[in-house]
Amino acid sequence: MSVDVDIGKIEEEIYSLREKLSELRQKIAAHEEEASKYVSQRDALHARIREIKENNREVLDIIRSIREEARSIRNRLNELFERIKQLREEKAKLREQVTGLRIPNISEEELEKRIQEIDMIIATRPVRPEEERRLFEETKRLTKLLHDIRKKNTVSSRLREITDEMTQIKEEIQQLKEQLNAKKQELDQYRDSYEKIRAQIMEVKEKADKYHQQYIEVNNKIQLLEAERILASSRLVELQDFVRKLKEEQVKSRERMIKERMKMQAIQKLNSGGKLTFEEMKALLEDEQAWELFMRKTSG
């Protein structure tokens, strides 16, 4: 490490950083006090809102209960409307299935009886080929007709079920609409009271929100100052560490210079035959060549 660095300038920066950190701590403390004031004011107003609600608990509970009941009725109505939609779609599809079917005025039993008769004729009597073909074609036609009649009867049965279900649903819808209207009338009885309570709460809430916003703004300033404080503190630690190491190096450098002067002084004494002090002998001992010179002088 070089010892030519201007420690004075570095120490000036250290002093400046310490002053800056002191100012930052003061600003942070002032802002924290301000933020605490806003939090207290906000919390006091929130407590006032709770007090208003508690003082009007009975009315608010009644209104809440009526609204929940009305919401439940609306949900049920939506379910029924959706079911009506599904039934109408199913009804239209069923009608499409039997559209164009021409069904004569004959019952399933009559058709089944005629088909059985034909089968019996073919099975028990000798018939000419052309007669057999005619009977086969008749069986085929009657079988298709029987299928169409059964299909129409099945569709008609389902259509009657759908009509019955839709009638029941429409009756329930009418009842639910009447219930919903009754709930609206109940709410109207409490509307004035509710609006007064709501106005009180909103007035207090606006003030509380204002204090909360002021708290957020001040807290943001604190965060910025904290970031600045951390940077300044890191820089201060860095400079202090640098100065400490630099001073340690300077001390070591001065010690080396002193030892070097003492060694040169000891060598001069040896050359002139002078007597060495303990410190001078110690300085020579740390230098191998100088110590060899000392040993030659003393042994000679």
UniProtKB/TrEMBL annotation:
Record's keyword annotation contains Coiled coil: yes
Matches recorded under PANTHER family: LEBERCILIN DOMAIN-CONTAINING PROTEIN, NUCLEAR SEGREGATION PROTEIN BFR1
Any one biological process term the GO annotation gives: intracellular mRNA localization
Coiled-coil spans in chain: 7-97, 152-228
UniProt xrefs under Pfam families: DUF7121
This protein's record includes keyword Coiled coil: yes
Single annotated GO MF: mRNA binding
GO CC aspect terms: nuclear outer membrane-endoplasmic reticulum membrane network; ribonucleoprotein complex
Protein name per UniProt: Phosphoserine phosphatase
Keywords from the UniProt entry: Coiled coil
InterPro entries the UniProt entry points to: Bfr1, DUF7121
Gene3D superfamilies named in the record: 1.20.5.340, Helix hairpin bin
